[in-house]
Design brief:
8-stranded antiparallel beta sheet; Alpha-Beta Plaits; cytoplasm; PrfC; GTP-binding; GTPase activity; alpha+beta; translation release factor activity, codon nonspecific
Length: 181
């Protein structure tokens, strides 16, 4: 399989084709001949575990950044950028994903990283029709605010109590536990 490359002008449903790509396409993209399709992609669920990712070799910053971007494109984990300190936080479902990321960064991108634990309970994508309340929330919870890869606001609650209090104090803000809302 995939022993040779040929150029084709036509493909049919079920055909497996490869596309030369420099980052334009992402997993889950759909190609059509112009039809307007309206469907949501796969949702990103709130991770169970969180860690700061640190570059272990400053001379390999570009390799690390490229590796993180491509691994996140594959859906290996989720990336959040803390708005308080600018640090990158990786969110996963389990510990094994951190080990896989570290292994792949080293072996596929020649970049080494180290992990620093961060005590977080839940990532919640937030939205509100009340712009003033949303602004007030983001200012009050600034140290817990992050952006996901799509630039959406994410509240990183460090405990169930903090999340419940935020929901009680800011009743016009919707807290979503998936990125699709």
């Amino acid at each position: 399989m995939a022993q040779r490359k040929t150029t084709i002008d036509e493909a049919w449903a079920g055909d497996i084709i490869g596309l030369p790509d420099n980052g334009t396409f992402k997993i889950g993209d759909t190609l059509t001949e112009g039809e307007m399709l309206h469907f949501r992609g796969l949702p990103s669920f709130s991770p169970e575990m969180f860690k700061y990712i640190e570059n272990a070799d400053p001379m390999k910053q570009k390799q690390l950044a490229k590796g993180i971007d491509q691994l996140m494109d594959e859906g290996v984990a989720q990336l959040f950028v803390n708005q308080f300190n600018g640090r990158k936080i990786i969110g996963t479902v389990g510990q094994l994903q951190f080990e896989v990321i570290q292994y792949r960064l080293l072996n596929e991108y020649n970049a080494s990283c180290r992990w620093e634990p961060v005590s977080l309970y839940k990532a919640c994508w937030i939205e509100s029709d009340d712009a003033a309340e949303l602004d007030a929330f983001k200012k009050r919870k600034y140290q817990f605010m992050a952006k996901d890869r799509e630039g959406r606001d994410v509240f990183l609650a460090d405990s169930n109590y903090v999340l419940q209090m935020a929901q009680m104090d800011f009743k016009h803000i919707k807290f979503h536990f998936t990125s699709e809302f």
